[in-house]
Design a protein that fits this description.
The complex is a heterodimer.
Chain A (H helix, E strand, L loop, with lengths): L6 E13 L9 E13 L3 E5 L6 H8 L7 E6 L8 H7 E4 L11 H11 L4 H15 L14 H12 L6 E5 L7 H16 L4 E5 L2 H4 L4 E6 L2 E6 L1 H6 L5 E4 L6 H10 L3 E7 L2 E6 L5 H4 L4 E3 L4 H12 L21 E12 L2 E12 L3 E5 L6 H8 L7 E6 L2 E2 L4 H6 L1 E4 L11 H11 L4 H14 L15 H13 L5 E5 L7 H16 L3 E6 L10 E6 L2 E6 L1 H5 L12 H22 L1
Parallel strand pairs in A: 3-7, 3-8, 5-6, 6-7, 16-21, 16-22, 19-20, 20-21
Antiparallel strand pairs in A: 1-2, 1-4, 8-9, 10-12, 10-13, 11-12, 14-15, 14-17, 17-18, 22-23
Chain B lengths: L2 H5 L5 H8 L4 H19 L1 H23 L5 E7 L4 H12 L3 E6 L2 H9 L5 E5 L3 H7 L3 E7 L3 H27 L7 E7 L10 H28 L1 H6 L5 H29 L9 H26 L2 H18 L12 H7 L3 H15 L3 H25 L6
Helix pairs in contact in B: 3-11, 4-9, 4-11, 5-8, 9-11, 9-12, 9-13, 9-15, 11-12, 12-13, 12-15, 12-16, 15-16
Classes of the chains: A alpha/beta, B alpha/beta.
Chain lengths: 587, 394
């Protein structure tokens, strides 16, 4: 199959770099693509996988003729995208990460716009539109403004707009990012159907599990291709080296944190009350004296982590040690939410939500965009008044004593909300003052955060110029300055690469062990495994609640294996929506 | 069938567009973009506010501002003799609803009052007034505080009116033969060179056209960059000149709507005459809107951020149009350095055109050179925006 005649896209030693920041210093040049060679074969589904910042978007934009490569050869449909970009753009379909739907136009108007631009005739439309509507289930919403669609529906409409006529090559840049698991599955079904019909498709994704279903994967990391092969070949790298372990004390998270620090272990993640672990090359299980191991079939992610560890030297997992230990009663209830309701006009964003969190627990709120997670968070932090319900944080009623309650909690917002033009040091100084710290105390706290979050070498860098992972660290550091006993984190790991995510959770685990209570929202289903307890939210309601293991058992996977968190999520949400439709019909 | 005919029938545009697809895909694409832009414009309250609501508000505001009569103006009357004639003039001023005269005996006292801004003007009736009235060459000196040139002009007219009324009364009472015309000598203090013209309608039109032309387009183009909508649009058969036209046509239409509102209300609400011809006014406005669109497109393509684009456009177009175009402050009274800058501003040429068309008529020696400069600017700017709006990112 290495016949390059069937290659729709061919890249040889492609390079592209950008200059970050204003000062043209050598270290500010980002090599987005650093000698990339690959090819896309006709009629195949190729997945471009890699963490954020790997160079996926840059590569796709080069193919679409939106950027020009600095060096190397690139052929798309036998044309050079640097010269014949318009000809390529006439023939391909491209869906950017932030798809450019016009939110103030309706679904139909968006479709018509793209059909007009592509010169699709009326006859072709009569044939094409019903197909697209059936494929995307948008038929009932043609008159709705695109801005009023859910995240998943927007992505489907974006896809429909790129498919108003048959492209010769379809480029999809992270089509499933921020989309709930249900819609993700639907999107993938559409993509598979297109490939089945003979279309050549390139999909980029940072969800590693999605790569498993493609014909070919290109693994990209820091601008370099780590592997270009069938997904099974990547998975095979972890064959015979993947095990699950049963923690003796029942605390999978603590075992996982300890295993990650072992130099012989490539990867360890919590997995339904057990720990899934990939051993280093040539390491035997017996030599490590691990508790109650059991060999398992590797997943794509296991193989990916093996690849990643080959390039990234094993870094020590970060630890965190509180300056002053919290001497509070463990297992005491610190957050109580009962029948919490928040309405915006006629829209109920949070609908009778109840949960409680005990001291030192990690509590996860899972759900798609728009489920009500962030609204719930804002109410907990006293940033938004509740319409009704009980809200107690650290024994204080947030509705009466918002400010007092806020002193005892730290909040990391979803978006990077620090001052981009200020340096790391200046940001910390500002937030320390904002929390009422001064003098020696302030200096000590800033010193502590710089050290604990390993920010010392970047202390004088403007925070907007920090690499992604460091920004997240800085945000967390700022939230911990006033030694809060509760930490709220809103989508802290979105946009972080797998290594950064593991480092993040390593810190969170350490904090929880020191009795800091953590409440976190995420749409990465696997990350729920790090939580002590989770609640699945959808459309403002809590649909399921319990330990990760309990919640996973609500799903149905068949074959006797434990359903994944994603299976459970899909199952729970489908049941709830079906129930709603049913009661709607009855009424 | 011409494609312009399609423009007038948006309902059937869809099927018509597909007909055209076979022979003129370029027009179909432009039309698709125009439709899209028009829909967005209509659904965006900010565009409607700027294109329709703002002109109306400005017209009412300016209209009321100017129609508000100047009443009870404090003036000092320097009475240097107490002849019946002199007292008659004072009585005339006292009876007038427009003045609130304060009698003083000497000029220095009056000057002090005006310096303290206790009065807005001085009417000086000289010591030989009665004698010169009979001689037929009487003079009254009127001195006005010129810091507010418009108010001063209005007061001046009233003083003249009051004195004129007094002369007529004199004539009617039979002193006609004895009383010659009184010469009113006007002096404007503190702004001697003041010669500016303040015209409601041209000023309004400049502001509205600048807002719609430059400000609004820079916002909508920056919005497309910001929301990433351009990225998807670029990877289609659409060409960048089509994107530019798709932006230009609807906002041009909105600009013309704003213009019509201004002109209509000027004519029917405030009876401002249009001495020149309508088509000259329209053509000049078209040129100016296109120049504004060019600036807006250029700025927004360069900065790609709504906030910065709007600020920049405000600074580069609206503020100069307000301050340096000659509509509010007379260009001839500006320092030379600033006057040089005004030559770079399209608003300057547009104001000159408007003032001529509205108040003087079709004076070709003024219209042609100003229009030529605007046309040249338009050409340069559209070339410029063509260059910066390439279908490339980064």
């Amino acid at each position: 199959m290495s016949d390059s005649a069937s290659a729709v896209v061919l890249g040889r030693d492609v390079r592209k770099s950008f200059v970050r920041g204003r000062h043209q210093k050598a270290q500010d040049v980002v090599h987005a693509l650093d000698g990339v060679s690959f090819e896309l074969r006709s009629g195949q589904l190729t997945a471009l996988v890699g963490p954020d910042g790997a160079g996926k978007t840059t590569l796709i934009r080069l193919l679409a003729g939106l950027l020009t490569a600095d060096a190397g050869t690139l052929r798309v449909l036998d044309l050079d995208p640097a010269i014949d970009s318009q000809q390529i753009q006439d023939r391909i379909g491209y869906m950017p990460q932030k798809f450019g739907l016009y939110e103030d136009l309706t679904v139909q108007e968006n479709l018509d716009l793209y059909a007009d631009l592509h010169g699709v005739s009326a006859a072709e439309r009569r044939e094409r539109y019903p197909q697209l509507m059936q494929m995307t289930d948008l038929g009932a919403f043609t008159g709705r403004l695109a801005g009023r669609l859910s995240g998943g529906m927007k992505q489907k409409l974006g896809l429909a707009c790129t498919l108003v006529r048959s492209p010769e090559l379809l480029l999809l840049d992270e089509p499933t990012v921020g989309v709930d698991p249900l819609s993700r599955r639907e999107l993938w079904e559409i993509v598979h159907r297109l490939v089945h019909a003979g279309l050549t498709v390139l999909v980029s994704t940072s969800y590693l599990d999605e790569a498993e279903h493609s014909d070919h994967v290109i693994v990209l990391h820091r601008g370099k291709v780590l592997a270009a092969a069938a997904p099974a070949e990547v998975t095979r790298l972890a064959a015979g080296r993947t095990f699950t372990l049963d923690p003796e004390d029942g605390n999978a998270r603590r075992l996982q944190a300890r295993l990650l620090e072992e130099p012989h272990i490539v990867d360890a993640v919590p997995d339904g009350g057990r720990v899934r672990c990939v051993l280093g090359e040539g390491v035997s299980v017996d030599a490590l004296q691990l508790p109650r191991t059991q060999p398992v079939e590797p997943h794509f992610e296991d193989g990916f982590m093996v690849l990643l560890r080959r390039t990234a030297a094993a870094e020590a997992m970060p630890d965190i040690k509180l300056e002053h230990a919290l001497t509070l009663q463990p297992d005491e209830q610190v957050v109580e939410v009962r029948d919490l309701v928040r309405r915006f006009g006629a829209f109920t964003a949070v609908n009778h939500v109840s949960f409680e969190v005990r001291r030192g627990e990690i509590f996860g709120l899972l759900g798609p965009n728009g489920a009500g997670k962030t609204t719930t968070f804002r109410m907990l932090c006293g940033l938004l008044p509740a319409s009704s319900g009980v809200l107690r944080v650290a024994g204080l009623d947030v509705r009466d004593t918002g400010a007092a309650a806020r002193q005892r909690l730290g909040y990391v917002a979803q978006k990077f909300s620090l001052y981009g033009a200020l340096t790391v040091q200046e940001n910390l100084e500002f937030f320390a003052s904002a929390y009422g710290l001064s003098g020696a105390r302030r200096r000590a706290r800033i010193e502590w955060t710089l050290q604990q979050f390993e920010l010392n070498e970047h202390a004088q860098l403007a925070s907007q110029e920090l690499p992604g992972g460091y920004k997240q660290r800085l945000a967390m550091a700022a939230a911990l300055l006033h030694e809060p006993e509760i930490l709220f984190l809103d989508e802290p790991t979105s946009g972080a690469d797998p290594l950064a995510r593991r480092a993040f959770w390593h810190r969170i685990t350490a904090l929880a062990d020191q009795r800091v209570t953590v409440i976190v929202t995420t749409h990465f289903m696997q990350e729920a495994e790090y939580c002590d307890r989770i609640a699945i939210m959808d459309a403002g309601r809590v649909l399921a609640q319990g330990t990760p293991g309990e919640v996973r058992r609500l799903g149905s996977a068949g074959h006797g294996r434990l359903p994944t968190m994603e299976d459970a999520f899909v199952c729970v949400v489908e049941q709830a929506r079906a129930g709603e439709a049913h009661s709607g019909q009855a009424a | 069938m011409s494609w312009q005919a399609q423009l007038e029938q948006p309902r059937s545009a869809w099927s018509a567009a597909s007909h055209l697809a076979h022979w003129q895909p370029k027009l179909v694409r432009i039309w698709a973009l125009v439709k899209k832009e028009t829909r967005q414009m209509i659904r965006d309250p900010a565009s409607i506010a700027m294109g329709v609501v703002l002109p109306v508000i400005l017209i009412l505001l300016f209209g009321f501002g100017l129609s508000l009569d100047v009443k009870d103006v404090p003036i000092a009357v320097v009475l240097e003799e107490s002849s019946p004639e002199a007292l008659g003039v004072v009585a005339g001023l006292q009876l007038s609803p427009y003045f609130h005269p304060q009698i003083v005996r000497s000029m220095p006292a009056a000057q002090e009052l005006i310096l303290e801004r206790k009065v807005d003007g001085i009417v000086r009736i000289p010591a030989d007034f009665a004698r010169r009235v009979s001689a037929g060459d009487a003079e009254i000196q009127v001195i006005l505080h010129g810091s507010d040139a418009n108010r001063a002009r209005i007061i001046q007219a009233y003083v003249q009116g009051a004195i004129g009324a007094w002369s007529q009364r004199q004539a009617a009472e039979g002193h006609g033969m004895a009383v010659g015309p009184v010469l009113v000598q006007n002096r404007l203090w503190f702004n001697d060179a003041n010669d500016s013209h303040y015209f409601l309608v041209p000023g309004l039109i400049v502001l509205v056209m600048t807002l719609i032309g430059a400000f609004l387009t820079s916002m909508v183009v920056a919005r497309e960059w910001e929301r990433g909508t351009f990225e998807a649009l670029f990877v289609t058969p659409v060409r960048s000149d089509e994107i530019l036209l798709g932006k230009t046509i609807p906002y041009f239409g909105l600009g013309m709507l704003g213009l019509s509102l201004c002109v209509l209300s000027a004519q029917y609400l405030f009876d401002v005459p249009l001495r020149g011809s309508l088509w000259v006014l329209l053509s000049a406005s078209m040129l100016y809107v296109l120049v504004g669109l060019g600036i807006g497109l250029l700025i927004s393509s360069a900065v790609k951020n709504q906030l910065i684009a709007s600020q920049l456009t405000m600074l580069a177009t609206f503020m100069p149009a307000f301050m340096l175009s000659g509509f509010l402050f007379d260009l001839r009274s500006m320092p030379a350095a600033i006057r040089v800058i005004t030559y770079l501003l399209p608003a300057r040429y547009y104001v000159a055109l408007l003032q001529t068309v509205f108040l003087a008529g079709d004076i070709w020696s003024v219209i042609l050179p100003n229009a030529a400069v605007l046309a040249a600017m338009m050409g340069l700017l559209s070339l410029g925006s063509r260059v910066v709006t390439r279908k490339r990112l980064g």
